[in-house]
Design brief:
It contains 5 helices and 5 strands; from the N terminus they run H-H-E-H-E-H-E-E-H-E. With 147 residues, the chain is an alpha+beta fold. The protein has one domain: Rossmann fold (3-Layer(aba) Sandwich). A 5-stranded mixed β-sheet has the order 1-2-5-3-4, covered by helices on one side.
């Protein structure tokens, strides 16, 4: 998988930018690798898209986000996810994130037509229409909680 991402990056990122990026694998929550040690609190922007389906890994994912996220007050994690695996899994992720020190700076749902609405951890008492639900994304900017 990593090799495929490297090929895609090489094919789609101009050659003059080769020194500006690298493609590396990372196991969520494993923070003692050379990559993790070299990049602790290094990134002011982290993009995490559609990686929330494994509820048992939410804590590890949040640990990695906090490890790599800069300590600068403007640093953010951009969260984007569809509801194809259910709203409850995403709600769980946001609960775990808050428990460990990340809070929403902005958070909403957006449909395939660009219509926005308030994020809700549950809709229609849990009886949300599955087909309709798949038309929406949750979009959120997470920041470190103020100490």
């Amino acid at each position: 998988m990593i090799e495929n991402i490297r090929r895609n990056a090489a094919r789609n990122i101009p050659a003059q930018l080769n020194e500006k990026y690298r493609v590396e694998g990372h196991a969520w929550g494993v923070l003692d690798t050379p990559l993790a040690l070299e990049n602790k609190h290094r990134f002011t922007r982290i993009l995490a898209a559609d990686c929330y389906w494994l509820s048992g890994q939410h804590e590890n994912l949040v640990r990695s986000m906090l490890h790599f996220l800069s300590l600068e007050p403007t640093a953010r994690v951009f969260v984007i996810a569809g509801f194809h695996t259910g709203r409850a899994r995403l709600a769980n992720f946001f609960e775990v994130a808050e428990e460990h020190g990340l809070e929403p700076d902005e958070m909403y749902e957006e449909d395939d037509q660009g219509k926005r609405r308030e994020w809700l951890p549950e809709r229609d008492n849990g009886r949300e229409d599955h087909t309709e639900r798949k038309k929406w994304l949750v979009i959120c900017r997470l920041k470190r909680k103020a100490v």
